[in-house]
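Marked as duplicate of an earlier ticket. Keeping the data here for the record.
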Amino acid sequence: MSDVFQSIFGFENKLSKLRATALNPEAFTAPEAGRVVRTPRGYFAFVPAPLPPAIRYDEALVLALSRADVALSELSGLGRLLPNPHLLIAPYVRKEAVLSSKIEGTTTDLAGLLQDEAGAEGPPRDLNDVRELRNYVEALEYGVNRLRSLPLSLRLVRELHERLMRGVRRDSATPGEFRRSQNWIGRSRDIETATYVPPPIEELNGCLDACERFLHVRDELPDLVQCALVHEQFEAIHPFLDGNGRVGRLLITLFLIERRRLSQPLLYLSAYIERNRGAYYRLLEGVRTHGDWHSWMLYFLRGIALISKEAVERSSRLMDLRERLRKRVDDHANAVRLLDELFKNPYVTVARAEKLLGVSNPTARKAVKRLETGRILHETTGREWGRLYLASAILKILDLDDVRGT
């Protein structure tokens, strides 16, 4: 299987030898977190208990929740106040797509995705990687729009999965369908030695129904605490044959938008998870084995706070850069218009400029040339045909890895 959790124990060498070789019922010591069942085929599987658990709001959790709330509110406010938030939404969504998919093993970076979307010829790319990234972008944009007519629900989860997995991996992941067979987590091809086995088929619908009921609970828990619990529960249920990790991370952004805690999809939490993925896997496992929701929520809230602050700081740098660059070309209206498009994707060809501006080819060439003479664009191919231009100052800010560790 190619799933985010397959590499869990590669990052956590300190886990006990019993759990490193097989799902061991004795390792699951918290009945309040769920139960281990023996299936008719003889293997063990874990069935998570319905949410919510008892939560200990100690000083550390209250402080982490307060910091995350403040930082997220600032980011959400930014999305409301920017005169054109789409200048940031497009690259931030693509940054989240790249980093979420990187956790799953894709290797195409942000520059590669942006070049592909610009229609540029360049070094050979893994076409399946690129398709997965574009699917992620499509699924997230679809989900944000779909929330206007459909609440976050199992139906929407299936619709997201269908778009996420469409046309990749030979559709072996049955896009848009909950699994009808048992899956498991681990590098072993044998379920008997799997490191984690999610609920068996006969328990799956009950787990999903309970998760959806909790998803619809309002005003009983802080939104960020509920979001952390939903994400953990979804990962424990693992309802699809493939793509569970990415759907689970999509749900974080969509949950926060639905609860009006995030005005635009400007949160790229996968940057934090990818950097701290060992702790991510260990803490999710700790919920199942020891009922340690407290440590998981501290990790989650810290990630929300860090990425929200980083996104605000990155936005400020981008907007400051935009003002400086506009002054260089304010004598050329089409160049100014094209400059804004470069903040969505800093790669451009003349053909793409022609389409973005809705002008003739010669007019598009003049706009590109003005940005080039203004030292905003530079040509990257060295060719006389199929030329690709890059606003490297913009890409540098977008692609900067600022995330701090845990």
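See parent ticket for discussion. The domain at 330-398 is CATH 1.10.10.10 (Arc Repressor Mutant, subunit A).
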